[in-house]
Amino acid sequence: MKHVITVFLTLAAALAAPALGGEGPGEDETLPRPVKGQKPEYYAALAGVHAAFGFFAMAETLQLKAIEVEKERAKKERLSFDLFSRIYCRAKWWDKAAKEILRTIELVDKDNVHQKRKYHLDRARVLKEAKNTDEHIKELHTVVALSETEAEKTRALRILLTALKAAGKLQAKIDEYEARVRKSPRDKVTLRILAEIYCGGGLLDLPGKAIRKYEQIRQSDPDDLHASERLARLYASTEQKQKSVAMFERLMTLHPKRFKMYFDAATAVLRRLGEKGEALAWCEKIWRRYPKQALVPVRIGDLYRSRGRRPKAAEHYRKAIDLTDQYMDKLPLYFRLIDCQTAARQYPEAERSCREALKLRIRSSDLRQRLKDLLNQILELQGKPREE
What is the pTM of this model? Predict the structure, then answer.
């Protein structure tokens, strides 16, 4: 408590004292000096006060004192990082910041790779601000090397490759990677990196080269999921619809849990690039292959409905409802079915569909009322009395 009171008194004195300019309160003799022999928390707190007012030179002195006095390694690491981030970075003393974060990294437990990676990324950002391109790129290489997951490595590589592009050094890296895969044609990691360079992360716009790299991956591993997904989309972007759709069909088999995503993507490709009716014909082919996938008759129904063929649409919505278990999934299908049956003047069938839908456990009073209103409209169209 004594240390906290002292810090607040110092803050009050700082507020009362006139600001004379310069780098810090070392140039203002009216500001109090810290008492000697204090705990590291005292010096750190006082450094924070000075930094808050932009007195970075004195804040640096105090924070360095806190680091010197602190004996515990983990706390010393935090104090060092605070000097880096709260003082050097705020003061835009980039060279000092880049040097200090190295001490922070050395204080990290050797097994804490995740924290080391984070600090190296912080150092890379500072080196970029300092316009130290070579060191900046070197640090980004370190970040890639320390990445523990595929997602981390992908993000780190994109940052590195973007930096290389900005520095005019990307082509040299491409040449290095190309030489590596010529020597080891089954090097999936390098092939994937090259494909990302050619068409990914905003680096280059060379989808043809990216396609060749992903196909090279599939030569050694035809079931590589990432390569297959990327190829399906690259073929679509280059208007190679048949290859794109074939790849999406392959993906439906490789990863059934993503069936909906792949099926809808392929349908979209055919609707955008295919001839009239091609998407419908393909969906019906898939329906014969996957007769238990409720999504397929839904999309077939949507396609018939968009062409004004309401009876055929209703037929497929009915099939989809029969394959669907969850009532929340059934309900929107019932609305589409009732709409098509009504438009096709299939009033008895529409009435039956309304009554079926009303038996669902519908929690929303608005949706239940909407169904009742539809039922009454259909009853009126048949000359039957309305129901309350």
Answer: 0.75
- Tell me which of 107, 138, 162 is where a domain ends: 107
126, 94 Cβ separation under 8 angstroms: yes
Tally of CB atoms within 10 A around 227 = 23
Pick the last residue of a domain from 91, 107, 123: 107
Local mean pLDDT, 10-residue blocks, the chain (388 residues) = 49 41 41 70 93 94 94 96 97 97 96 96 96 96 92 90 93 95 94 91 90 96 95 96 97 96 97 93 96 96 95 97 90 96 96 95 92 95 90
Residue with tokens 């990327």: 230
Residue 100 within a domain: yes
**CB contact burial 295-331 (16+ within 10 A = b; e otherwise):** bbbbbbbbbbbeeebbebbbbbbbbbbebbeeeeebb
In a domain, 243, yes or no: no
- Asked, for residue 333, whether it belongs to a domain, the answer is yes
Check if the beta carbon of residue 120 is closer than 8 Å to that of residue 146: yes
Domain that holds residue 380: 308-388
- According to DSSP, residue 19 is labeled P
Q: Is residue 4 part of a domain?
A: yes
On whether the CB atoms of residues 204 and 198 are closer than 8 A, the answer is yes
